[in-house]
Amino acid sequence: MFEETKINPHLKRQYLEKGFWTDRTLLDCWEESVKHHPDREYVVDDRGFRYTYRQMDKAASKVAAFLLTKGVKPREAVSYQIPIWSEFIMITIACFKVGAVAHPIAMSYEKKELVHSMNLTESKAYFGPTFFYKTDYEKQILSIKNEIPCLKTIILLDYAKEKASDNITVNEILRQYKPSKAMQSLHLTGQDIAVILGTSGTTCGTKGVLLTHDNIRYSEETFNKELGLKKEDIMFMPAPLNHATGFHHGIIATMLAGAKIVLQQKYCCREAINLMNREKCTYSMGATPFIYDILRDLETNGGALPHLRFYLCGGAPVPGYMVQKAWNFGILLCEVYGSTESVPHVYVRPDEVLSLNGPTSGRAMEGIEIRVIDDHGKDVPPGTPGEELSRGPNVFVGYLKNRKATDEALDDDGWFHSGDICVMDEAGNMRIIGRKKDIIVRGGENLNSNEINDNLEGCPGVADHTVIGMPDERLGERICAFVVPLSDKKDLKLHDVIAYLQEKNVPKRFWPERLELIDRIPHTGSGKVKKYLLREELIKRMRS
User: Fold this and answer.
1) pLDDT tens for residues 172-187?
2) Residue from 521, 525, 540 nearest 201 by CA
3) Residue 325 and residue 309: Cα distance in Å, rounded?
């Protein structure tokens, strides 16, 4: 199934010689952690579930034993659509135990997306809740199972609602099955595919990102080493576990360190603060809105996070005032940068946070190469905007069954073309200024939609906003602002917005030329705006 992987043979040889890549799989790493830390707590979630390494190993072995009885073989995909619950981790480890490729699916996926993604991965099993947050997932998967011919079994998690079908539940597996002592000979190496993650899909539809055991292990071992993380550390993870942040830095990084991860199934700011204090969390990681809300809540309602040393923040630039605000509570706010294809590989070191004071994403991790190039593929000098490229042992090995997209993003020399526009200084610190697709080319002038969007902040009557390029026959593109109006400002007009920008002395070339009101701005689970959906919506409105 993975014939389309793209690995530069010279780089492969280099990474193996340097020990960046090895024959060790994530199962080997897991078994080492269980051996060295059997009675340490590994997972705690806000439903009251707690697992030591030994307990999680036993539970995952039972799930693995069930998968073996259903004929799941090494290198076959297992799909799971699970909230931020401890069972997500249990199923992930069960996949490692049978040599299956883990295929976590976003909770937001509906019928069409499920059918597409599971047929693409040729999934043999599906795990999902009977019900979660207004959605009947059992009814949903049963209604489409006949459209997924490769699917052998459906396993349910019946916590929110009793099952309505005769499909087995995880609780029944844990009661009825014994841990599988002798797993089949897997014959896997670090270069085998470990997981397929969906891209966040901000500028186009999602793609299946192929990541090897080596990609993930190298990334997280280096991440832990450079941050100085130890087994005593406790991570709070509010981000979805099917995203690179939650999967890599949440599940895998803590496991490699013998540390602990604390999960919150649905983010709620004050409850998150209480949970972090109760579990004595020492660090956390997630999108910028998470920490923004936490700091605002602490300022407004009081309280503190005395155990939290640092927060790793991705998905949006971190301004200096937020760095200072966090430090007022003793928290070092470290910006990180990366993507599903090249998992956060640039970050601000905790000991440099206060001196840098934003806005920068920091420097590359050990073993990761960075380039900044112009439209002709030439390296640009420091201080000059260009596209960010990364190359290293962490970089993905292709998109599933999509060679065209793979070749567009991953060149023959192993460089991943991120599509992000950045500026690098003499010290190697990077500042992300937008996506290539965030650049609005208006009459030959390149305008950054993110900077234009920032100007709208504080506009009266505006609850939320974002800016995209609007097709225009004469100029190529014009500026379109999508705005969520406040409830008492449903009649907001373009001239109201322009009047605000005039008052702020914003140059006219940065004014929106079209205003579209919308009920909500669509975001990915990690907090990024799904601009491709807004482009589709704009085209529909322009046609009508």
Assistant:
1) 999 999 997 655 567 8
2) 525
3) 14
